[in-house]
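Q: Please design a sequence for this.
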């Protein structure tokens, strides 16, 4: 039997094309089904992604609403913010207080006498520097102005006192300059004042020579340093009572209030005092409730988009009829509309001016909310953020939905499994089609060879008949 090198050669038929068509006909229905299943699964994954995103956005607002202290914020207003500013925590009672700033705190600053240059020698020995309740001994081996500066700044005393050199005009010799060593306390206030005693290597009991030129003690007649700035505490009056502070900050003079003095009052003795007014932060409460309604409406819009049927277009939402979506929506709305606090004057959303409108969206009546804020301010916080308040319960509910074992995550895991199964089905399809193609190709090859053999036999018989006819008739073809 003649061999056939490729399909159709023996028979003259386009068997390769026929084989391809047969395989594709076998592939088409299964591929279409798998493509449809994959498209639907991907669409569901996208839809649940939108649902998770909206739930997460809603939960972000709920966490902010769950903190009771956030509802107790106080606003502070000063009659002159150039004189002082203030902050108050949630424990402060509302009201007005008279404040005057008598003076600001200042840091102690001392300066030496004049020296020709920074290299001029003052003297050697040791200095004991006291400031801020601490005492430091500084050994001076390089007795120049710059050497003493470096010794102080490189010692432990630098935490409380810093040294600098200034070069200025010499008032006694116009056109010339002199250098001075300046010592500054790092912190303000009387307790941070600087005192310096000296163990002078000259040991001549002369304060005007050697290292003794660095001596300074408050009120001592032997002082050699000049006081540039005195160490002072800040001082204010609160409702007429004087209060002092090492810094310009006054904390808990009024419990829960921090006052920052910025500038001395113009005439605190004779002029009317400035005022500090502490009030409930009503604006913050209104902002929180507005954010709550906006966040819920965003979630509701997503739920509607995923579940609604559009009669005009005949299009249904990607999760129309989905049980997970329906349960999520029902549980949130059941809690939202049935929740009742019962611990205060506010026990429902409607009392706050929050009502349900078209397509389940919330609307906020500012006028009604203002009335509740004025009459029952603290009860608003209790309703949302008290023990088992609405925000906390909604937060717990959403957390359950989004947890690893929640209904949303469980469905998403199911979609991932479905995609994996589709991939396996595609691989199995290709394997089955390869088997069908190989089997059919073998059958076509056999048929092709058979037809080729029959054609060869027919040609032989035709030739023999021609020869026989020529013998009988004597006529050669």
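A: Design:
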């Amino acid at each position: 039997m003649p061999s056939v090198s490729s399909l159709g050669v023996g028979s003259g038929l386009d068997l390769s094309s026929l084989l391809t068509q047969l395989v594709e006909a076998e592939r088409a229905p299964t591929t279409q089904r798998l493509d449809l299943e994959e498209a639907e699964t991907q669409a569901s994954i996208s839809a649940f992604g939108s649902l998770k995103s909206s739930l997460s956005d809603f939960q972000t607002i709920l966490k902010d609403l769950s903190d009771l202290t956030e509802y107790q914020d106080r606003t502070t207003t000063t009659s002159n913010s150039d004189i002082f500013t203030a902050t108050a925590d949630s424990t402060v009672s509302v009201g007005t207080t008279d404040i005057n700033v008598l003076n600001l705190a200042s840091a102690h600053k001392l300066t030496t006498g004049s020296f020709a240059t920074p290299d001029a020698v003052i003297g050697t020995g040791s200095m004991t520097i006291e400031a801020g309740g601490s005492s430091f001994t500084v050994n001076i081996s390089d007795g120049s102005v710059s050497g003493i500066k470096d010794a102080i700044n490189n010692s432990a005393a630098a935490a409380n006192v810093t040294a600098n050199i200034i070069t200025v005009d010499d008032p006694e010799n116009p056109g010339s300059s002199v250098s001075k060593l300046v010592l500054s306390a790092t912190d303000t206030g009387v307790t941070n004042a600087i005192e310096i005693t000296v163990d002078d290597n000259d040991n001549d009991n002369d304060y005007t020579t050697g290292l003794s030129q660095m001596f300074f003690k408050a009120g001592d007649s032997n002082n050699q340093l000049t006081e540039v700035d005195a160490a002072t505490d800040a001082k204010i009056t609160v409702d007429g009572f004087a209060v002092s502070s090492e810094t310009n900050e006054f904390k808990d003079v009024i419990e829960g209030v921090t006052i920052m003095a910025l500038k001395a009052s113009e005439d605190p003795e004779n002029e009317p005092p400035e005022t500090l007014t502490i009030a409930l932060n009503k604006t913050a409460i209104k902002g929180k409730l507005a954010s709550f309604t906006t966040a819920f409406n965003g979630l509701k819009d997503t739920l509607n988009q995923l579940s609604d049927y559009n009669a005009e277009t005949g299009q249904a939402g990607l999760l129309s009829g989905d049980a997970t979506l329906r349960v999520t929506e029902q549980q949130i709305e059941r809690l939202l509309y049935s929740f009742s606090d019962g611990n205060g004057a506010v026990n429902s959303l409607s009392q706050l001016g929050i009502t349900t409108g078209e397509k389940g969206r919330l609307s906020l009546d500012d006028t009604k909310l203002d009335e509740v804020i004025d009459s029952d301010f603290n009860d608003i916080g209790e309703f949302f953020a008290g023990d088992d308040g609405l925000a906390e319960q909604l937060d717990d509910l959403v957390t359950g939905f989004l947890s690893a074992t929640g209904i949303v995550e469980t469905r998403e895991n199911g979609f991932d499994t479905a995609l994996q199964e589709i991939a396996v089905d595609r691989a199995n399809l290709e394997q089955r089609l390869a088997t069908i193609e190989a089997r059919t190709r073998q059958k076509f090859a056999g048929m092709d060879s058979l037809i080729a053999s029959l054609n060869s036999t027919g040609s032989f018989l035709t030739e023999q008949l021609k020869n026989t006819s020529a013998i009988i008739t004597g006529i050669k073809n």
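Q: Thanks. Anything notable?
A: Residues 1-5 have pLDDT under 50 and may be disordered. The domain at 1-73+282-477 is CATH 1.20.1330 (f41 fragment of flagellin, N-terminal domain).
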